[in-house]
What does this fold into?
Amino acid sequence: MAALTQKKTCSQMMEEWKEYMWNPRTREFMGRTGSSWALILLFYMVFYAFLTAIFSLSLWVMLQTIDEYTPKYADRLVNPGLMIRPKLGTTEVVYSVNGSWQDYVDGLNSLLEEYNKTVQMERGVNCTPGVYNIQEDTGDVRNYPKKACWFLRDVLGDCSGDSDPTYGYSSGMPCVLIKMNRVVHFLPGPIKELSNTSITINCSGQVSVQRSQVGGHKNDNLLGSMQYFPTVGNRNLGGIDLMYFPYYGNRAQQNYTQPFVAVKFLNATRGVDHMVECRVNAANINNQDSRDLFQGRVIFKLRID
Ligand SMILES: *[C@@H]1O[C@H](CO)[C@@H](O)[C@H](O)[C@H]1NC(C)=O
Ligand SMILES: *[C@@H]1O[C@H](CO)[C@@H](O)[C@H](O)[C@H]1NC(C)=O
Ligand SMILES: *[C@@H]1O[C@H](CO)[C@@H](O)[C@H](O)[C@H]1NC(C)=O
Ligand SMILES: *[C@@H]1O[C@H](CO)[C@@H](O)[C@H](O)[C@H]1NC(C)=O
Ligand SMILES: *[C@@H]1O[C@H](CO)[C@@H](O)[C@H](O)[C@H]1NC(C)=O
Ligand SMILES: *[C@@H]1O[C@H](CO)[C@@H](O)[C@H](O)[C@H]1NC(C)=O
It folds into this structure.
């Protein structure tokens, strides 16, 4: 009996469902007439077209506010750090005079190829030393692409690879290049007592590891004397000329050439770990922040065996 009722209900349901899907009497499909369906379809089409229009409009408005040449949400990094080159994985220069320095020399060779005179002359212009290379736009007229100033490897003197193809590595007097990280539109101010035309870089060192043969403790003298290229004035300081600033960003100033200061370690004591600290001296760069050892300076290990 129960099975019979169920069967009846089942076929009834089947019928009802069929009628719901297509009712030939009222010509309704799923409970709606054709015109009703057409209206619904029309409503959704208009609705989605409207949504698409709103979305496109807001996207367009947002794109209007973006200047393709200046990063809109660039890091507000106003205190640049320093980096050393060549950099083989870690921030250190550790090698043995008898052998393992070829990687450093190769690194410098490939880095400095772009600084050959012919390459630089093609990419940039000979700027006036000592003044910022300001190339602002005039009103709405864009001054793009902006010109880049030459940096010829010759100014690196004994570290240019010209007179000494091993950059001093084979003789235990290695050269290390120091660069300042680029900050778009940043104008570093020179320190008047040191130079009016350049910001300056100089280094000092300590032996951090106690060693019996050198009497232990921190010792500044073991790093020996250093020579900087290019040199500023008659002091022993490296200089980055103001003409390399400001940097206008990769898009506006594609050919920008990264300037370097080369440091040559003339008499570094062999066989000890020197912790070399190089700082940039500029009026508006903090190189003293004890919480951030990467602001305005770089610290790296130097060891010559
Ligand atoms: C380097 O080679 C010289 C001889 O060519 C040798 O006297 C010296 O001990 C070697 N130095 C090292 C660190 O192997
Ligand atoms: C750069 O100059 C050096 C010699 O001064 C040369 O060996 C090298 O091939 C040059 N590189 C380019 C890219 O011109
Ligand atoms: C950038 O360098 C290329 C050659 O590498 C040169 O043809 C082009 O004119 C330079 N652009 C500017 C703005 O100086
Ligand atoms: C920078 O210029 C000022 C005067 O404008 C001068 O007194 C000072 O000696 C100059 N500094 C250097 C390093 O030449
Ligand atoms: C760099 O030179 C300046 C001025 O001679 C000096 O005050 C400073 O201590 C030096 N910095 C380093 C890291 O040696
Ligand atoms: C090199 O340093 C040593 C001490 O480490 C010193 O005795 C020597 O005079 C220095 N040589 C030069 C040329 O400065």
